[in-house]
Amino acid sequence: MRRTWQRYHLARPEYAFLLEPPPPNEWVAIDCETTGLNRRTDEIIAIGAVRIVGQRILTSQRLELLVRPDKEVPADSVRIHRLRSRDVAQGLPLPLAMHQLLHFIGSRPLVGYYLEFDVAMLNRAVWPLLGMGLPQQRIEVSALYYEYKFKQLPPYQQFDNANIDLRFATLMDDLALPQREAHDALNDAVMAAMAFVKLRQLQGQ
């Protein structure tokens, strides 16, 4: 029913491939850098994405885009991701960046760390193209990690959620995974992919 509704409401039929069954055992890890944290008014300035096939992260099949914003990049944001207005001035127009991203993702499920924010920002951007938000399944790495750690807690501690630290650096360290420089869209996407693959291995998937 959901797919039927989506096909009916899809604004442009050339994007119908997004609603096809995803390739088996494939995902796309994704991350965005933005001008701020306001989902309604801030803008995407960088996108990183990488494909996952089974237990392999295909860094040769990656997407790294700079996006030209309509406004100046605030200094507070520059201090986080180190992308200045001059760095993104020659970036892609947002519609073209979304077109490339949608073709890169296809119908594959999306993987990310605190993916809700990235998807909210991307949904604003893709709505003019699709007439809807991103239709792909979403897999939240912090939720997978929480489930994995929760099962390890003794019963008397399972009521206390504070025992599970979901910070990304803590998660990566606990999973014994190498950490790249953070707040770089491609680096963050690759690290989310590594965590996803490791958690699937630990859970016997």
Explained architecture:
The protein is of the alpha/beta class. The chain has eight helices and five strands. The two termini are 28 Å apart. The model has no long low-confidence stretch (mean pLDDT 92).
Could you outline the blueprint of secondary structure elements for this entry?
Blueprint: H1 2-9, E1 26-34, E2 44-53, E3 56-66, H2 75-81, H3 85-88, H4 94-105, E4 110-112, H5 115-130, E5 138-140, H6 141-152, H7 168-174, H8 185-202
Parallel strand pairs: 1-4, 4-5
Antiparallel strand pairs: 1-2, 2-3
Helix pairs in contact: 4-5, 6-8
Query: How does CATH name the architecture?
Result: 2-Layer Sandwich
Stated plainly, the CATH topology is called Nucleotidyltransferase, domain 5
Strand order of the largest sheet: 3-2-1-4-5
* Unreliable segments of 5+ consecutive residues: none
Q: How many individual helices?
A: 8
Number of separate domains:
1
The total strand number stands at 5
Mean pLDDT: 92
Largest sheet features: 5 strands, mixed
User: What would you call the shape?
Assistant: globular
Strand content: 15-25%
Write down the Rg: 18 Å
Helix fraction, binned, reads: 40-55%
Q: Could you write a compact summary of the structure shown?
A:
The protein has 205 residues and is of the alpha/beta class. It contains eight helices and five strands, in the order H-E-E-E-H-H-H-E-H-E-H-H-H.
Question: What key phrases describe this protein's structure?
Answer:
205 residues, 5 strands, alpha/beta, Nucleotidyltransferase, domain 5
